[in-house]
Amino acid sequence: MNSKRKTIIAGNWKMNKTCKEAEALLGEVLPKASDAACEVVVCTPYVDLPVACRVAEGSKVKVGAQNLHFKASGAYTGEISAAMLQELGVSYVIIGHSERREYFAETDATVSLKIGAALEAGLVPILCVGESLEQREQGIMSEHIRTQIKIDLANVSAADMGKVVVAYEPIWAIGTGKTATSAQAQEVCKLIRDTLAELFGADTAESVSILYGGSMNAKNAAELLSQPDIDGGLIGGASLKADDFGQIIAAAK
Ligand code: 13P
């Protein structure tokens, strides 16, 4: 963490929690976030967003979505636009999560369009990048991450880059209980920042919050967050338990 940048602890609930369950979980999370030293975000399923926005209103917790469509409106059955999210009171949106890239054929080209749509609607995009175990073992991790960053942010100006959050999520660490070591996570978050500096200039790169995601939990959060280029966490499984999520929030001092 670095005092120049915003520290963000964001929960990605993925496809978990009905509306009623979401209301109950958020009700438990709110008191744990009331004196947080960081920004706290919960990214819920689409259908939970209205109740989450209502429950979180006036609190320190911001609400995020997990995806959007890049078109403003039209014949795109089953899709949700940035304006629909913005009108609900949603502040953040996860874009390019590896699960969407893997299971829903998300490409760097569509990720790039979605980043643009989010920014235009005033939503903060949380861009996810990360390598597979195979890519890491093949020694092409750096090229892969740099390529994702370059294409996904190709249409973003330096001024707008200040509004984007990047999350490094090694695919092999997601939902596996196998966390990257703090040194591994720091190495890639620094690589991301160096790439942002090449593309947008050093000042902009220094201002971007870069999160780590992948089996972050109450036990390992403080160590990961102590790294100079890790400015927060994107948390899956542990964000579904209010106590665990609360301990991660508390670790972000
Ligand atoms: P886990 O914390 O469950 O590994 O998930 C991480 C993640 O994918 C957050 O977006």
Describe it for me?
This protein is of the alpha/beta class and 253 residues long. It has a single domain (8-251), classed as Aldolase class I (TIM Barrel, Alpha-Beta Barrel), CATH 3.20.20.70. Helix content is 43%, strand content 15%. It has twelve helices and eight strands. It has helices spanning 19-33, 49-56, 82-88, 98-103, 108-120, 133-137, 141-152, 158-161, 182-200, 202-207, 221-225, 242-251; strands spanning 8-12, 39-43, 61-65, 92-95, 124-129, 165-168, 210-213, 232-235. Strands 1-2-3-4-5-6-7-8 form an eight-stranded parallel beta barrel, surrounded by six helices. α1 (19-33) packs parallel to α12 (242-251). The longest helix is centred in the C-terminal third of the chain and has 19 residues, at 182-200. The protein is globular. Bound molecules: 1,3-dihydroxyacetonephosphate (13P).
Topology:
Elements: E1 8-12, H1 19-33, E2 39-43, H2 49-56, E3 61-65, H3 82-88, E4 92-95, H4 98-103, H5 108-120, E5 124-129, H6 133-137, H7 141-152, H8 158-161, E6 165-168, H9 182-200, H10 202-207, E7 210-213, H11 221-225, E8 232-235, H12 242-251
Parallel strand pairs: 1-2, 1-8, 2-3, 3-4, 4-5, 5-6, 6-7, 7-8
Helix pairs in contact: 1-2, 1-12, 7-9
The chain binds 1,3-dihydroxyacetonephosphate.
